[in-house]
Amino acid sequence: MAKVIMLCGRLCSGKTTYAARLSSELGAVILSVDELMIALLGRETGSMHDEYVRRAKGYLHAKAADIARAGTDVVLDEGFWRRSERGEVRAYFAAHGVDCELRYLRISEEEWSRRIDRRNAEVAAGRSDAYLVDDGLRAKFVSLFEEPAADEADAVIEV
């Protein structure tokens, strides 16, 4: 039976790269909230950003359930920063008869900082359409992220 693989991790922890690897290995469809947001709204969403993200996630969760029920694995490249969100999404898929698992990409503080610097340099040089991780976004992330407890993650990938 097809399943949804939820990727949890910090900004710049390698979720998108890992999602591409899983897609290749499993023949899975990748659904990315960042990709959808940038394609539809660009990088500047202002005060509506969190609302747009909420809507995009709702749409992608419904599509993920549809795709998995049709027989294809799905990789949700989303982040799943909060424990409550991870529980709500698991419950959503269970209610829709879809198996899911959470894979947590764990990264050290030092490597995380290096990756943020590298990403920002790529964005500034015009070689990436990813979000710039400024001090405000980094602080917001730090305040929101809850590392998965041992009973939450189905797999932990050390980055």
Annotate the secondary structure layout.
Blueprint: E1 3-9, H1 15-26, E2 29-32, H2 33-41, H3 49-69, E3 74-79, H4 83-95, E4 99-106, H5 109-124, H6 135-144, E5 155-158
Parallel strand pairs: 1-3, 1-4, 2-3, 4-5
Helix pairs in contact: 2-3
Structure explained in plain terms:
This protein is an alpha/beta fold and 159 residues long. It has one domain: P-loop containing nucleotide triphosphate hydrolases (Rossmann fold), CATH 3.40.50. Helix content is 51%, strand content 18%. The chain is built from six helices and five strands. The chain has helices at residues 15-26, 33-41, 49-69, 83-95, 109-124, 135-144; strands at residues 3-9, 29-32, 74-79, 99-106, 155-158. The protein has a five-stranded parallel beta sheet with strand order 2-3-1-4-5, sandwiched between helices. Helix 2 (33-41) packs across helix 3 (49-69). The longest helix is centred in the middle third of the chain and has 21 residues, at 49-69. The chain is globular.
